[in-house]
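Schema walk-through. Below, the input block comes first and the output block second. Nothing else is stored per chain. Lengths vary across the set, and this one has 1143 residues.
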Amino acid sequence: MTSRSFKASRSNLSTTSDAQDLNKPPLPPTVTFGRRTSSGRYISYSRDDLDSELGSSDFMNYTVHIPPTPDNQPMDPSISQKVEEQYVSNSLFTGGFNSVTRAHLMDKVIESEANHPQMAGAKGSSCAIPGCDAKVMSDERGVDILPCECDFKICRDCYIDAVKTGGGVCPGCKELYKNTDLDESAVDNGRSLPLPLPPGMSKMERRLSLMKSTKSVLMRSQTGDFDHNRWLFETRGTYGYGNAIWPKDGNFGNGKDDEVSEPQELMNKPWRPLTRKLKIPAAVLSPYRLLVLVRLVVLGLFLSWRIQNPNNDAVWLWGMSVVCEIWFAFSWLLDQLPKLCPINRSTDLNVLKEKFETPSPNNPTGKSDLPGIDIFVSTADPEKEPPLVTANTILSILAADYPVEKLSCYVSDDGGALLTFEAMAEAASFANIWVPFCRKHDIEPRNPESYFNLKRDPYKNKVKSDFVKDRRRVKREYDEFKVRTNGLPDSIRRRSDAYHAREEIKALKLQRQNVVDEPVESVKIPKATWMADGTHWPGTWLNPGPEHSRGDHAGIIQVMLKPPSDEPLLGTTDDTKLIDLTDVDIRLPLLVYVSREKRPGYDHNKKAGAMNALVRASAIMSNGPFILNLDCDHYIYNSQAMREGMCFMMDRGGDRLCYVQFPQRFEGIDPSDRYANHNTVFFDVNMRALDGIMGPVYVGTGCLFRRIALYGFDPPRSKEHHPGFCSCCFGHRKKHVSVANTPEENRALRMGDSDDEEMNLSLLPKKFGNSTFLIDSIPVAEFQGRPLADHPAVKNGRPPGALTIPRELLDASTVAEAISVISCWYEDKTEWGQRVGWIYGSVTEDVVTGYRMHNRGWKSVYCVTKRDAFRGTAPINLTDRLHQVLRWATGSVEIFFSRNNALLASPRMKLLQRIAYLNVGIYPFTSIFLIVYCFLPALSLFSGQFIVQTLNVTFLTYLLVITVTLCLLAILEIKWSGIELEEWWRNEQFWLIGGTSAHLAAVLQGLLKVIAGIEISFTLTSKSGGDDVDDEYADLYVVKWTALMIPPITIMMVNLIAIAVGFSRTIYSVIPQWSRLIGGVFFSFWVLAHLYPFAKGLMGRRGRTPTIVFVWSGLIAITISLLWVAINPPSGNTQIGGSFQFP
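--- output ---
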């Protein structure tokens, strides 16, 4: 393994020098006219060299690149750029605080052979230079690149040595190489050669200029040749990256007159939207709203009657019940008001394909014009999150139905574990078979574990004759892949032990050679973790050591799969291949392993910090304008899910959407859904309702973000769209702000803290850090994320065809820059985590991050697809479920006591949206009143009193109306949301279970943290494993004791005993008070019915609880009730048992 150091980075690490550079006036660009010669070089002419006529004219500084013509044909792709990209994909980049960024060239990444040419460590021919065993350079198909006509095999480093120090002579035939220009950029099939960077212009600025100056990059005549006249004059396009001919107003359809400079044939076509709103039928929604109003009025009258009619015999009981009922009414109102405007949405994928992937005058080749998507997968601990699960998620991403060259996958390993690293490498290797198989046979789902475990017929609707044979072979390969992945822990341990023993033997021999006469002491060498190529793993070791522990290791980036070629790479008929891939695109998306640097003394901010590191690294490496984040156990179930999300982002007005949230769906849940794991009431009722206001809340996974919204910018036209506090109920005044003179980029990139129309770009380093490459990528991401300007009503659009240009190829300096932005010190004195990226300071960083975006005026959309977009797993064990709810509730309490409280929201947030966020922070406090109310029936039965003086007609009428309206509201919610009645009831049950356990603990934890600064963590105290391994739901019956179970158990025991005491008291009484007994028993049964799933969870597996337990429980309850009556007999009786006598 060799390593390469990068002592100079793109980013200036000195903030002081940055400030000095920013204050200097920019140097005027050098005026250069360049022409590419047949040898591949650029010949530059100065202004003085031009003829007098041109020299005497007034013109602006610009650069012109002459397009390909018969006398100016581009040469074959140069070797250097492909070799550089191959070098990057075969290198493990490390670096961080006070350390040099290094690239470790790896011969192999995993023990098994890597077959795909895009994969790191892909197998290939060996260099023919004696003493060198490096791999020969190869192209995108894995075919050797041989720079000399004699076909002498030579690796990258030896080739560079031969050119620079060997006079450019081939070591094989001793002839000069025909082409030794190592400084030229490479191109793929048909790719136009880029110009050298003008002075003062970065790669990102050049890319933005190229996209903006390209009205139709690939516009060609009917013969297929480049049509210069039409490109320049009919579309008013421009050459290269300069300003030779700018469109009117300097933009595309965004001027003050909304002029759209598009070809006439485009304007004649009828414009079709990508999405539609499907309103709830008035026959359902109108009665629903009316019932809400009726119930609100009845609740007001009932509470008024309760206050005016106290129970003088038990004022304390009456007072507690009234306070609880007032809070419940307030809580219900907060939950119900945001549900008044539910909507459904639908997408049209055919229109998306027609607009972005169909040949047109602006895109004659039909190449995809869709924007890029960077997908983030986060994992932290391979012991808690099995690598096989993460690998399956990644395989479903790599096989997604989205343009391969526009897709990038980043895996964040916050634990820095070699196990995760090698599991990802194994997944990349298996993707060579799995992804083409999915494309060939239209496989759904594209998670191999889920696909091969499908209960339905796998051969249904499969028309290709070789499907059965292909499926059988791929299944066999997947089984082997699982064996290799599950065996990685033992493999890594054995390998590390073997290398460690070798190192000890070497050290012992060396010591014996140095010390001859003295006795030899045992040599102690730190037990390292070794990679497959025989070098130390730079991350966390199995036996932690200095700079190699979970919280102390270098930053790591490994390009597992290098960026694919720009054009489709179709498979060929090859008998050596496992399956026939003829006419199947075998390219794979970019796959990058990232483990951010961690050092002691730095707050790494858990998952939010890891996500922000991915945001920065991806901005430098691929800079997709959209980001999809998934948990490691949430895989893509619908391969077209990203296309459906993109319909919303690319539709008219989509530039004001900050994210598209997909519902969470789960697998492996018990059929009865005992603990409401599906959470359908939240995902299908509450979230649909919020979609009718400003949009759903962000729930942590399955969310497609707009990158610039994560950067903390305001939505476009935020000065024009200023909704105000009550704009959801009343019309809002439209602010007329002059934006005509504002530069287009600054108009779309505004921060809320600045009222200036033109944003001061010099302040960006203070917000985003001192990486100039990262800052340069921001306007590029903003431009690429705009909708198509294919209609006069589309504001802030981009020209069709602008995204058909190929992306920049990776080079080593780019990855080195990415290493610097994932270092532990990069966020110091910046706004990352405060206003930029995922927000820090809460265990529920997802809700806070979404709240901040809505607070700036962004909107979000809820995308419910016909086939579930994503699926994941959820804890079906009672204790695990309670701890999950505890974490959510703790985050809500933290939000309530922070500046993210919805009471402090900006005027841009609508009233109903503000109420919804207020409910998010308040709902855990309902547990205090819920606990009291659950004990009230027992206290009523114990005391012989009730919350009202008597069960009169008025009280019963109010109770009946409130109950009936609640049931009717539930039925109507079921009607417009599509959930089942059983799911609604399960949600009600777990609301009480969670409210009396996890929510109460969260409130106590939050209050202690705010008042006393004490943090309490609720952990499992004991565990008992399930015996039945074959049972899919074995974990459901495992009983794990936790302190969260104490309040519900107490409530159940007290209410059961109270019922027995109440019956005994009434039976023994001279004048039985049956009305009070019935009232107390009714409410006790209401509490016990809600706690029934909790009781089942305590019993464990059905039939395994001994009968004697129930017998003794009944006897103890009877004994305690008799003892209570004996100690406190009914009034008017002096003897035990009163007047009751056995017959």
